[in-house]
Amino acid sequence: MCRPGEPPARGHALSKGRKAAQAVREVTALDTGLVVRGHGRHYLVQTDDGQRLQCVPRGKKSDCVVGDRVRWQPTSPGEGVIEGLEPRRNLLYRQDEWRSKSFAANVDQLLVLVAVEPVFSESLLSRALLAAAEAGIEVRIGLNKTDLPGVAHARERLAPYTAMGVPVMELALKSDVAASLSTLGPWLAGKTTLVLGPSGTGKSTLTNLLVPDAQAQVGEISEALNSGRHTTTHTQWYSLASGPIGALGSGAWMDSPGFQTFGIQHIEPMRLAPLMPDFAEPATRCRFANCTHRQEPGCAVRAALDAGQIAASRYRIYLELFDELSRPPAY
Which of 200, 114, 107 is nearest to 162 (CA)? Predict the structure, then answer.
């Protein structure tokens, strides 16, 4: 035994090293699975052979989100414990009144669903685009209800986004289902897509079209996790294999109906402009490298604004987000 302050004997160090290596081997040898839904510390994990079981994480800390690949081991029939988390490709956050919280991982692409009616929020749209850009996720805008009379105005409001290279897919999910699915299908096939949209845009309609048994799955999973209507956020993963685009190849659909906006509090205010496609190139030509694009002389971003190359609404949103991210967090 070592005296206090003395380094451990070499044999003792080797013993600890062997134990650590054995622990790594044990976690590596465990079965893998996909988190398809979570509620508190309870997660529904889909195994590699398609079975689903209720799992809890080892220890008190719970870091899993829907879309995570985990390593688990069984504890009883239909139940297990999560022992480890596989590396993530990306991670997204939701924002509520109090804080940002991670909610989805390993997303290939994001569909921001807006509609001709009700009028959509450009602030929400911009936050979603920023979150996707920061995470390196491809994004498209879906404009639903294009059969309504206000479609021209909606297109006009989206013009700055199409000009900066964000694709807009026009949909009429109730009046022309076949054409809408034909537009979406090739883009969704083979990818994991997260959809975000405020109430009234047709997100539930689209989910039910793509996943015919979506409501049944929600009921079954809520019962399994003992999570009912009072849960604030239910992010859920669905396979698209059995839906109308299944013939195009495998794919997955992630729906998170319990919140209205992405959390971007992890983004530094000086990183906003490089993440905004219409700001990024002019920002490289500003006189000062640390230009905030608000009042500095020689600001190429404000020059682009004056020249009509950046929409006034986009600049207003930039100022709003810059001020928000510059404020110290409230505790």
Answer: 114
pLDDT computed for residue 95 by the predictor? 74
For 330, the token pair is 């409230």
What b-and-e string marks burial along 140-171, b requiring 16 or more CB atoms within 10 Å of the CB?
Answer: bbbbbbbeeeebeebeebbebbeebebebbbb
Shortest CA distance to 177 belongs to which of 214, 149, 152, 208?
208
Check the CA dihedral 161-140-112-182 and report its sign: positive
Distance CA 82, CA 211 (A): 28
Rounded to whole angstroms, the Cα distance separating 247 from 241 reads 7
Give this prediction's pTM. Answer: 0.84
Give the C-alpha separation, 83 to 10, whole Å.
Answer: 30
pLDDT band with cut points at 50, 70 and 90 for residue 35: very high
